[in-house]
Every structure is written in structure tokens, then in C-alpha cells.
Design a protein that fits this description.
Elements lengths: L1 E3 L5 E4 L1 H8 L12 E9 L4 E7 L7 E2 L4 E2 L3 H13 L5 E8 L9 H13 L6 E7 L4 E7 L5 E4 L2
Parallel strand pairs: 2-4, 7-8
Antiparallel strand pairs: 1-2, 3-4, 3-7, 5-6, 8-9, 9-10
This protein binds zinc ion.
């Protein structure tokens, strides 16, 4: 899956990451929200971004039918290990979670969380990416660290 970013570069989500996220798609009433962090690489001087891998729900997360609160410690461990093992090329790129709706839109709480992450987290690029996996569509938003603005990306 490829989306066009504000800087005219392209964001590519690897097939593997997409398949993994879709495994948590809330396509039945019993399935709780899921989520995790998004990891990957910058290429061509930060212009293009590739999402290589994601984390999936772990102990420490709080999950319900319409909410997902990611725990910090275990996901952070994965981020740190990936960064070290890749010699600093595999970076934290953002967050993903599922919604029990066909064409997902961020809730007020999502926007609030994303803005908080943009303003408090240390990361190497100007942008972070926020993915919501709906039952029929996966959508991506781009957050700007400087302006705090969040905008949807299209294919
Ligand atoms: Zn949400």
C-alpha cells in the first residue's frame, strides 16, 4: 500500500506489515481494538518512508471493543531493539490501531493522543504517521511535529 505524503514523497506499507495489521481487523463483534507502533526506514533523504514492521497487542495494553490504550514499556523495548539491531536505520514512525467501522475516521480521543505524541515524543523526522485499520479500508494520517497539524494521506 502506497500513499502520497505532503513532501511529495511516498509512504509505503510493506505487505508483511499490512497483513499483520489486517489480522486484527475488527470484522466480528467479539474482536477488540488492537494496535501498536509502526517502524521503518527513511529513504532518499527522508523523502520516502517504508513501514517494514509493526508491533501487535502485548501485555500491558488495555483493550476493549471501542478502545485501545497502548502500554509503553514492551512496545518501547521493541523500538529500542530494532533501532540497535539495524544500526539506527529502523525508526519509530508512528502508531496504528483498529476501529470497528468500515471506513475509519479518528475519534476526538485519537486526535488528542496523536497530538500529544507529536508534541512530547522524540523522533528523527518532521512527520509521524497514524494508521487506522477499518473493516474495509486502511487509512493513514500524517502529523506534523512543528505545526501539530494532522492530515489524511491518499493513495
Ligand atoms: Zn481510534
Amino acid at each position: 500500500m502506497i500513499a502520497k505524503m505532503t513532501n511529495n514523497g511516498r509512504l509505503k506499507i510493506s505487505e508483511e506489515a499490512l497483513i499483520r495489521m489486517n489480522q486484527y481487523k475488527q470484522d466480528s463483534n467479539e474482536k477488540f481494538e488492537a494496535g501498536g507502533v509502526v517502524l521503518g526506514r527513511f529513504i532518499k533523504d527522508f523523502k520516502d518512508v517504508i513501514v517494514d514492521r509493526i508491533t501487535v497487542p502485548m501485555i500491558g495494553d488495555v483493550r476493549g471493543r471501542t478502545f485501545f490504550i497502548r502500554g509503553e514499556k514492551r512496545h518501547q523495548q521493541v523500538i529500542t531493539n530494532a533501532w540497535i539491531k539495524s544500526n539506527g536505520t529502523c525508526n519509530y514512525l508512528g502508531e496504528w490501531h483498529t476501529h470497528p467501522e468500515s471506513y475509519p475516521t479518528p475519534s476526538g480521543q485519537d486526535i488528542k493522543n496523536w497530538k500529544e505524541i507529536l508534541s512530547t515524543r522524540t523522533f528523527s523526522s518532521l512527520y509521524l504517521y497514524f494508521i487506522i485499520v477499518g473493516t474495509h479500508q486502511v487509512r493513514i494520517w500524517e502529523g506534523n511535529r512543528k505545526t501539530g497539524k494532522i492530515k489524511r494521506l491518499y493513495r
